[in-house]
Amino acid sequence: MHTIGKVATLAGVSRDTLRYYEKEHLITPASKTDAGYRLYDDDAVRRIRFIKTAQHCGFTLSDIHELLTLKQADSACCEDVRSVAIEKKLRIAHKLQGLQAMSRALDELIERCAGGEAATDECPILAALENSLAEVAR
């Protein structure tokens, strides 16, 4: 059994992160000491590493909770997990499209402006943004 500090060190996260994961029902202490200190087993360390790896892949804590639930469900199968991964991939692709559109818009704004010492009230980027806001407000 490990204290919260030891588990945090082993898993490479902060104590606050462990407390948050516990609050979000992603991990549970195996037991508590008579003084009320949380004690975690090696499974908790593995689970925290799973959570961090899943986050690195773009899964939210809600997604991870779903994955962990599927992992423990007798009625779940690999296809269920695959569906969650596909849904995440589609959301990421949608976000990427949005980011690419933002990047193109910024390219256009940057292209309009030569920079230099002109006053900001003559800046084509600021003017374009103001004009777009006026059009949206109509």
TrEMBL record:
GO terms for molecular function: DNA binding; DNA-binding transcription factor activity. InterPro entries: DNA-bd_dom_put_sf, MerR-type_HTH_dom, MerR_fam. Residues 1-70 form the HTH merR-type domain. Pfam families: MerR_1. It comes from Aquabacterium commune. It comes from the Bacteria. CDD domains: HTH_HMRTR. This is MerR family transcriptional regulator. Keywords: DNA-binding.
